[in-house]
Design a protein that fits this description.
heterodimer; A: Alpha-Beta Plaits; 2 domains; B: 223 residues; Rossmann fold; three-stranded antiparallel beta sheet; globular
């Protein structure tokens, strides 16, 4: 019962602190909101870029080109052998005739290019689909290394280089996000800490009286921590709403650029759980900022 | 209080070798000129200061060795009234008095009932939603007394409680404070107004330059 009574008192006291200095409280919340908006934009970009990798994973397969002299039976045997390699889900044999047909129909001017050739220059190949766990740059490398060197295979191609390049791009964006995040988090903590320190100063008479009537240190400090937490949560919610608004309103204007970055993948917003993490991150920033301020104020 | 000295600067003593004992329900005046050490003595009792030398035992706890975490527990058993009232101007009378109940986790409904009861006892129930600055000096001091008494403290300390009040109000306020001693609360009032001391005829300890110069036991009140 007493715990509940105290919780109510703390919330009332924190709310009254916010009401007593609405401008400074708003500055704290807006600062957290702006920081989280920038960080959220980076996080959303990384999230969507990772989504591309996940989605394209289904379409990634390894192609093993077969040596020219292999007969149909040897090709079948080789396909069966590759099918037993760990990480391989299925193997499809594309013989020379099918390869030629694909080239003829798949490439715009393929038919014209092939005119005048007396024999089929295209090699037979194996299209190797990987089990879902291997549909990544690293996983692909393991399977390719196992197949490479098998007798009858002349060459291997895969989307590994593309995947690795894209992963580097994702890593770069994520790295910029982390760097920016660290700087913004530090700046935000300092601003929130100053805001709360002002609040502590503004309420020093009240704190003196509370101490006189027997308030413990934690009793006096908790409302300030809660105030920082509420400011942070408000900032996080504000950032989330703004980001969602920008996502809905501004995104269509950047379709071409996003097509370049995300390919054909439809951009998506944060899932509810991720949205909650953003609000919680704001609350955390507010809480730690005020904790620093409270510790500093009590020391002085 | 055994051989207590308090020094804020080296060589300069606010209190020097003071030994005292107060009984439960006793009403005591601390008198003496400004700078005699009255406020320092009160501060030592509610652990706002620590003695430089000697021992002080208040409600069974030794102030000289009291951990910071235990100080709030002690203060909840002591009510303090100041000359400048120490009320929060942005809070209502009710909220100011309720502060003492908030810190001990009294539920809202119970707190409101207790605040109403003490304000009624002090004739201020009709002022409970007013802010302190809209009250007279006497009313503000009664609010401060209500805050000090609402927790039914075992000790009531008052530092020049009538210093800012006119003579008529002084009597009202002192009567209020004196009445708490009859209910078993130990009351210590610091004042330089000898008229009050004479009027109540209670034990009076005179301090001068940090030393006890006289400890006069209670005599029959003059009025």
């Amino acid at each position: 019962m007493k715990l509940w009574v105290r919780a109510v008192y703390f919330v009332r006291s924190a709310w009254s602190g916010i009401r007593m200095s609405p401008i400074t409280s708003a500055i704290g919340a807006v600062t957290i909101g702006i920081s989280l908006l920038l960080l959220g934009a980076f996080a959303l970009l990384v999230e969507n870029m990772e989504g591309v990798l996940y989605k394209l994973g289904d379409e990634l397969f390894v192609t093993a080109y077969l040596e020219a002299g292999l007969g149909a039976e040897e090709q079948q045997q080789l396909a069966a052998l590759v099918g037993t390699v760990e990480g391989v889900e299925s193997v499809r044999l594309v013989d020379q005739a099918e390869a030629l047909e694909r080239f003829r129909t798949g490439v715009g001017r393929g038919a014209a290019l092939l005119e005048g050739l007396s024999s089929n220059p295209l090699p037979a190949s194996l299209e190797i689909t990987l089990v879902p766990e291997r549909r990544s740059a690293g996983g692909m490398a393991i399977v390719v290394d196992s197949i490479d060197g098998l007798e009858g295979i002349s060459d291997l191609t895969s989307g590994r280089d593309w995947v690795e390049g894209y992963l580097r791009a994702v890593g770069l964006v994520r790295g910029i996000g982390y760097g920016l995040g660290a700087i913004l988090a530090l700046a935000t903590l300092l601003i929130v800490a100053n805001t709360i320190q002002l609040a502590v100063f503004a309420r020093r008479d009240e704190l003196e009286i509370l101490a006189l009537v027997g308030a413990s240190r934690s009793f006096m400090q908790t409302p300030f921590l809660l105030e920082g937490l509420l400011q942070g949560a408000a900032g996080g919610a504000m950032a989330l709403l703004l980001l969602f608004g920008l996502f809905q309103l501004v995104l269509p204007g950047f379709e071409f650029g996003l097509e370049f970055v995300l390919g054909g993948v439809q951009p998506h917003f944060f899932a509810p759980g991720q949205s909650l993490v953003m609000v919680a991150a704001g609350a955390g920033l507010g809480f730690f900022g005020s904790a620093a301020a409270v510790a500093g104020s009590w020391r002085s | 209080m055994f051989h207590v000295s308090k020094s804020y600067e080296a060589g300069s003593f606010a209190l020097r070798d003071v030994s005292l004992e107060f009984g439960r329900g006793e009403f005591v005046f601390l008198t003496g000129p400004s700078g005699a050490g009255k406020t320092s003595l009160l501060k030592l009792i509610f652990a706002a200061e620590r003695p430089s030398e000697g021992q002080i035992v208040v409600l069974g706890r030794n102030i000289a060795r009291l951990g910071a975490a235990v100080v709030p527990d002690l203060r909840r058993r002591i009510g303090v009234v100041f000359q400048d009232f120490k009320l929060l101007p942005k809070r209502t009378v009710e909220e100011n008095v309720a502060l003492a109940l908030d810190v001990v986790g009294t539920p809202r409904r119970e707190s409101r009932a207790k605040v109403f009861a003490i304000l009624k006892q002090l004739g201020l129930q009709h002022r409970r939603y007013h802010h302190p600055l809209s009250l007279s000096g006497g009313e503000q001091q009664r609010v401060a007394i209500a805050r000090a008494l609402v927790n039914e403290p075992e000790i009531l300390l008052a530092d020049e409680p009538t210093g800012n009040l006119d003579p008529d109000l002084t009597v009202d306020i002192m009567d209020l404070i004196a009445s708490t001693a009859t209910r078993g609360t130990t009351v210590v009032v610091a004042t330089h107004e000898m008229g009050i001391v004479t009027r109540y005829g209670k034990r009076a300890i005179r301090l001068d330059q940090g030393r006890i110069t006289e400890d006069r036991q209670a005599v029959a009140a003059l009025s």
